[in-house]
Amino acid sequence: MEFVPGQDLKGLIRQSGQLAVGTTINIAKQICDGLTEAHKSGVVHRDLKPSNIMIDKEGDVRIMDFGIARSLEAKGITGAGVMIGTPEYMSPEQVEGKEVDQRSDVYTMGIILYEMVTGRVPFEGDTPFTIGMKHKGEVPKDPKELNAQIPEDLSSVIMRCLEKDKEQRYQSAGEARSELESIERGIPTTERAVPKRKPFTSKEITVQFNLKKLFIPALIFIAVVIFGFILWRVLPKKGAIPLPSDKSSVAVLPFEDLSPQQDQGYFCDGLADELINRLTKIESLKVPARTSAFSFKGKELDIQDICSPPCVTLYFAYLIYYEPS
Fold this sequence. Notes:
This protein is mainly alpha-helical and 325 residues long.
């Protein structure tokens, strides 16, 4: 998963107590953008809360932890009457264990907005049951009563998100975002919070091709392919060791392990290496390198297939005696 350097929204609220209106709107707009994308993909988060919202060092917001998210298309995925979520941030329909849709996330976003501007959630209680009952039947206190600095229209947006009847809420995160944008235009420019401009990212970079840009690389590629094909057809297909005509040549091929236990392979290879090293010191002798010679190891090839005639084969046999200690 992506590592996001920064802090979660819950920590920011604890640190600041109440967030400034400009900061609140900026964060809320980005939450709306994230929810819009999720809902467009047919996913409801169901556990949206400040601790699941990360704010990186550039001021960009990320919605995290879709662990209990559900598909809008799959009905009855958790069973009737099952409460899923965090009590302080649950919609009334979640409390009742009913089917949820994108409007449930809109309700939770209203709770988060409420907490950002007041420093507290709208409903608190000693038990999850108590909190759930308040979500179902109690009207939250107007956030403007707890923070007089909140514009009236922002307070209205929060209260509409927190409507008990989901038909009375904003029907989508995008609809709520439009309201927030309108409010932002009405506050002084100095109070607005704008995320720092980020460097190009994978989402922002687009590569455009045209025929001129493609023609030369494509032509070079085709030429390389044709040249390789010609070489493949012209060069000998057998792995013959090239020998110059002005020097006598000798190739030391890998020795075969004929010991009863077949455990002298390392000795055979070492012997061939030593012979190659010694023979290469003779200036009048051409000795193919170990890589070329050992390419024939384990292959049942006739000596005439390996070198051009006339060829002379010398066989060496080494008998190792083991004396008892």
